[in-house]
Automatic annotation (TrEMBL):
Record EC number: 1.2.1.39
Annotated keywords: Oxidoreductase
EC main group: oxidoreductase
Domain of life: Bacteria
Gene: feaB
The UniProt record lists the keyword Oxidoreductase: yes
Protein species of origin: Microbacterium hydrocarbonoxydans
Name recorded for this polypeptide: Phenylacetaldehyde dehydrogenase
Pfam families, sorted: Aldedh
Gene Ontology MF annotations: phenylacetaldehyde dehydrogenase (NAD+) activity
């Protein structure tokens, strides 16, 4: 990365970070050096932000779809103009490398998602149109949206929440994770260079701030991506104000490789389905079930890729895997892999930390010959460790895959795509991919079942989710 991009990143941080001697210090995920100071907002700050958003929202909605679309496109252009600086901040704060499906990829997704939301036709439909009655279903802004985003894809998921909300005329108060506030606040600052004042406000703080957002009487809609435990607390907190909810929570995605599949043909896609963002992705593949007839070949192919994939500091242009973002997550991965070892599972790649790279680095790990009831299989590891479970009976494989209380994504792999599509319907998850895992598209709805949450994002369904409905019914229209 050029010196000019680093200088631009420093200028962005100067715009949003707390003054010297205040705020909370944020470390570089790879080196643990301090990169900036995040503001620490109070409950009173949250109340003020919501009041400002509430005051700004009617004027924003009154602009109409055409003008809002114009401004969303301008915001996308602003992100693109600052993409290298934002990528630099993101790589240091979150840990993901610049290259590969990582920081630059995430910034590209941010502007692409804004443009996609601008292009979606405004939802609404004629329900009845006969000789006596004309009835229409219309979608109007909900009001003030609280957008609470996680630390793994902090910018992209913020945009997933913000883009449809703004498109439909809502004002948004966005709270990033306390682990990755600087990159999100910098993104919001860039967008606010073109957006009207107070239609998008960023706040920074701990769980007390999130709790106030969730329970505030002037919040009309809450969009949350994060853990199931936190999601449950948001449901409880929102009961008093009856805010509408979209919850995308934890997952433990399973992949099933059917017999007769060519291991060499799917190995790269299997690997990246599990290890994208160093495994720190809600809809990454967390468990892989492989038929006994090809099990050893799949395991060997995955091990070869794991051992040859460059890992290290994200600012090194050669690396495509980085550290775990934070110490609690590093400890979870270490505990689950150590438990697998204690149960006699076979470590065919990785299986240990990489302290020579930094405090939070863990080698890409493939775990074979592990029972389905092992903790590494049953719990979401959210990191660079993939358990590969052997099966011989396909019905048992589907029973194992469905035998957890979450259902975000899943995948089925086969040399016969039609066979895989037929098998996919047996998976209990919001999305099932065939011969891939984890890919999302701004026009294709996405959401979970079971304890992975409820509500849909993306596409026309995503616009509807941040709206309230109104039926306008009256006499038949003349002519």
């Amino acid at each position: 990365m050029s010196d000019s991009a680093a200088s631009a990143a420093a200028a962005l941080l100067d715009r949003i970070q707390a003054p010297e001697g205040s705020g909370r210090e944020i470390p570089d995920a790879a080196t643990r050096e301090i990169i900036g100071r995040a503001p620490v907002d109070t409950v009173a700050d949250v109340d003020g932000a919501i009041a400002r958003a509430r005051a700004a929202q009617p004027g924003w909605e009154a602009l109409g779809h055409e003008k809002r679309i114009e401004l969303l496109l301008a915001a996308a252009d602003a992100i693109d103009a600052n993409a290298e600086a934002l990528s630099y901040v993101l790589s240091r704060e979150q840990g993901k490398p610049l290259n590969g499906p990582n920081a630059r990829f995430e910034l590209g997704a941010c502007s692409a998602w804004l443009r996609a939301n601008a292009a979606i036709a405004t939802p609404g439909e004629v329900l009845l149109d006969d000789e006596s009655t004309h009835a229409e279903l219309v979608y109007k802004a909900a009001g003030v949206v609280a957008a609470i985003s996680p630390w793994n894809w902090p910018l992209m998921i913020t945009i997933w929440q913000v883009a449809p909300s703004l498109r439909m005329g809502n004002a948004v108060v966005a709270k990033p994770s306390e682990y990755t506030p600087l990159s999100v606040l910098a993104l919001i600052a860039v967008m606010n260079d073109v957006l009207p004042e107070d239609v998008l406000i960023g706040i920074s703080g701990d769980r007390e701030i999130g709790a106030r957002l969730s329970s505030h009487p002037d919040v009309d809609k809450i969009m949350f991506t994060g853990s199931t435990a936190t999601g449950r607390k948001i449901v409880e907190a929102s009961a008093g104000n009856l805010a509408r909810l979209t919850l995308e929570m934890g997952g433990n995605d399973a992949g099933i490789v059917l017999p007769g599949t060519d291991p060499a043909a799917i190995a790269q896609d299997l690997f990246w389905g599990a290890f994208i963002n160093t495994g720190q992705t809600c809809a990454a593949m967390k468990r892989l079930y492989v038929h006994d007839s090809i099990y050893d070949d799949v395991v060997a192919a995955l091990a070869d890729i794991a051992q040859s994939t460059p890992i290290g500091n994200g600012l090194d242009e050669n690396n495509v895997l980085g550290p775990l973002q934070n110490k609690p997550q590093f400890d979870i991965v270490s505990r689950l892999v150590d438990d697998a070892k204690a149960r006699g599972a076979r470590i065919v790649a990785g299986g240990e930390a990489a302290p020579e790279l930094g405090e939070l680095f863990y080698r890409p790990t493939i775990v074979a010959d592990i029972p389905n009831d092992a903790a590494l299989v049953q719990e979401e590891q959210f990191g660079p460790a993939l358990p590969v479970i052997r099966y011989s009976d396909i019905d048992e494989a589907f029973a194992w895959a469905n035998g957890v209380d979450v259902g975000l994504g899943a995948s089925v792999w086969s040399s016969d795509p039609e066979e895989a599509r037929a098998a996919a319907t047996r998976m209990q998850s919001g999305t099932v991919w065939v011969n891939s895992h984890g890919g999302v598209h701004p026009m294709v709805p996405f959401g979970g079942v079971k304890s992975s949450g409820y509500g849909l994002e993306f596409g026309a369904e995503g616009l509807k989710s941040v709206s309230v409905t109104q039926v306008v019914s009256g006499p038949a229209r003349k002519g």
